């Protein structure tokens, strides 16, 4: 749980995170979206169609948890998913949705990150399941993610779409997105070399205990 953060500080953190995601190739210019709770039933969200590498603090949209705009323009087209996640997981303070290319490519090929082939991702965020494809921007997306989020995961992949990280602050979301993409690259390299053998379930359970998850 993060310490209380002022709205101006949170605006800066979201813009910084968007810039890093773009600069590191984890999203296209107008792809992905970020949001974070401000407190008192409000949240900040990136605006629809905004270039994540050039976000300004005043661009962000302030809303209530019903999606009503308090200040700013039109929120991200994936707002429905963000709102559903906050309602379902009251302890979540930030949602970072990116389009890491290798990780998304795995899902296009019918593969995924769960079970993982390396232990590091388990220590960082636990298991990262893949949610079956649902049409982006529609209510089908929050409906599809509800079951996997109920399982307690802190991150998941949307098939053919992107990654979603539930976290305490925007930069933690960036860090975990990087780990997702790095793990995907290792998985692809292993498959290219012959076979990507996942960790045994017994070892996964042991590592999750060691990680305190």
Summarize the model shown:
The chain has about 210 residues and is of the alpha+beta class. The protein has one domain (about 5-210): L-fuculose-1-phosphate Aldolase, CATH 3.40.225.
Secondary structure layout:
Elements: H1 7-23, E1 33-39, E2 42-45, E3 61-64, E4 69-71, H2 79-88, E5 94-98, H3 101-108, H4 120-125, E6 130-131, H5 140-150, E7 155-158, E8 162-167, H6 170-193, H7 201-210
Parallel strand pairs: 6-7
Antiparallel strand pairs: 1-2, 1-5, 2-3, 3-4, 5-8, 7-8
Helix pairs in contact: 1-6, 2-5, 3-6
Describe the structure using short key phrases.
7 helices; alpha+beta; L-fuculose-1-phosphate Aldolase; single chain; 8 strands
CATH superfamily name?
Class II aldolase/adducin N-terminal domain
- In the CATH hierarchy, the architecture is 3-Layer(aba) Sandwich
Named CATH topology: L-fuculose-1-phosphate Aldolase
* Poorly predicted runs of 5 or more residues: none
What is the succession of H and E elements?
A: HEEEEHEHHEHEEHH
Kindly report how far apart the N and C termini lie. 15 Å
Q: Helix fraction? A: 40-55%
Number of domains: 1
User: Count of DSSP E strands?
Assistant: 8
Spatial shape = globular
Proportion in β-strands = 15-25%
**If strands are numbered along the chain, what order do they take across the biggest sheet?**
4-3-2-1-5-8-7-6
How many distinct helices? 7
Task: Calculate the mean pLDDT score and round it.
Answer: 94
Quaternary arrangement of the chains shown?
Answer: single chain
User: Sheet with the most strands?
Assistant: 8 strands, mixed
SS class: alpha+beta
Quick one: CATH class?
Answer: Alpha Beta
